[in-house]
Amino acid sequence: xxxxxxxxxxxxxxxxxxxxxxxxxxxxxxxxxxxxxxxxxxxxxxxxxxxxxxxxxxxxxxxxxxxxxxxxxxxxxxxxxxxxxxxxxxxxxxxxxxxxxxxxxxxxxxxxxxxxxxxxxxxxxxxxxxxx
Length: 132
Known about the structure:
This protein is mostly beta strands. The chain has one helix at about 120-130, and strands at about 10, 15, 25-30, 30-40, 40-50, 55, 65-70, 75-80, 80, 90-95, 100-105, 110-115. The protein has a single domain, classed as Jelly Rolls (Sandwich), CATH 2.60.120.10.
């Protein structure tokens, strides 16, 4: 089913672009991923990671992505290079062709807001084929 913008007018100034069709979630191994918004060209995800949990890149999609750290201090392993733990307010960009892993080694949960840039239909098809 192809996503279409829904334009619902509420009063003179407020317009709802989508109504309740995008929110879905998946929970596994201490990681809860919620799709807040899903469109043709980008997605917004909210990920909650319990202590000692790991999230692999292919589990959310092989697309260019920007991760914004909202809570906690998760660590990122990009390629073979591990970085420092990030702090709330930090953000990181990862290109589509880069393999990465996010881990929460802290004793408290981590919350990450992610924007996936899906691009054209051709790029989406290629990304899904690579993930197989």
